[in-house]
Amino acid sequence: MTDVFEASAEHEQVVFCHDAASGLRAIIALHSTALGPGLGGTRFYPYASTDDALRDVLNLSRGMTYKNALAGLDLGGGKAVIIGDPATGKTEQLLRAYGRFVQSLNGRYYTACDVGTYSEDMDVVARESRFVTGRTTAHGGAGDSSVLTAYGVFQGMRASAETIWGEPTLAGRIVGIAGVGKVGRHLVRHLTEDGATVVVTDVNADAVLRVREEFPAVKVVASTDALLAEQLDVYSPNALGGALTDDVVETLTARIVCGGANNQLAHTGVEKRLEERGILYAPDYCVNSGGVIQVADELEGFSFERAQQRASGIFETTRRVFALAKSDGVPPAIAADRLAERRIREVGRLRGVYLG
């Protein structure tokens, strides 16, 4: 068993949530509340072990600190995981039990959707907690946050295209999308409207079928390996994390990597190898922050137009990351970290630990 204190040394708080009657086994991790309450989704996933779940929630919550800081939000970083198969274990009883644990943190953590959870689930969680966002439009919420996540990724991709080819457009470029579920499907629409040629793959046959029906011109390949074998201009990982391994980087033909998946770099050092190979990496938490911008806007009384306007700022933020990377002589991933850490340091010192 992992030493929790050692593993979470840079985190403020880790909460293990257990309700035997409903079968709830969850972990909530608060990485930092220096900028405000921690905001991050709830992932419902059949982890092989508690150690795997803990490792994931710690990585994801740290990522949310940086994502929220770089997005200019007055929010810190938090995340939650529920251990189990959402197809068989998700019940009203379990979600409401989870909501009680969220409520017990008294506003230090705001939850929302993530892999395995949906706006309808957040409505159930909200019956036990005030600190829930990403709810359905029927309950005054923002609905599906993947809409603006994809929009933000597209803005980041436009900024990347400008850096490489001099124009902020993907027209005439070949873009490979790995994962066409929530985010990837919306991204296909933005790219086809912009004039790009799109190649997709997904392990979920139904997701591929939906995209093929909506966008008949899209090319479908059988696997991620087959996608990587294509002559791509842009590679866009939009499934689970760890997509950019050493082997993937060595086989990439794309000049740009820009996608909606979290924690794309399989390990520290991959960002340097990308740069060595002349591949521009748009840091994942920079370009995929449209979703968190959307659910954060809900806390003010949701306006899609206002949230979309804020998410359009991802274009300029991505530009700033590339500019700092060039001036400091570092990969964009390190430049993004420096911008986020600067804001946490300069603004966070005024706030300290958020009490709720």
UniProtKB/TrEMBL annotation:
SMART domains linked to this entry: ELFV_dehydrog
Gene3D superfamilies assigned: Leucine Dehydrogenase, chain A, domain 1, NAD(P)-binding Rossmann-like Domain
Name this protein carries in UniProt: Glu/Leu/Phe/Val dehydrogenase
Superkingdom of the source species: Bacteria
Active site: 79 (proton donor/acceptor)
Domain Glutamate/phenylalanine/leucine/valine/L-tryptophan dehydrogenase C-terminal as annotated: residue spans: 143-352
InterPro entries: Aminoacid_DH-like_N_sf, Glu/Leu/Phe/Val/Trp_DH, Glu/Leu/Phe/Val/Trp_DH_C, Glu/Leu/Phe/Val/Trp_DH_dimer, Glu/Leu/Phe/Val_DH_AS, Glu/Phe/Leu/Val/Trp_DH_bac/arc, NAD(P)-bd_dom_sf
Family of the protein in this entry: Belongs to the Glu/Leu/Phe/Val dehydrogenases family.
GO molecular function terms attached to this record: nucleotide binding; oxidoreductase activity, acting on the CH-NH2 group of donors, NAD or NADP as acceptor
Binding, NAD(+): 179-184
GO-annotated biological processes: amino acid metabolic process
PROSITE patterns per the UniProt record, alphabetical: GLFV_DEHYDROGENASE
Keywords, alphabetical: NAD, Nucleotide-binding, Oxidoreductase
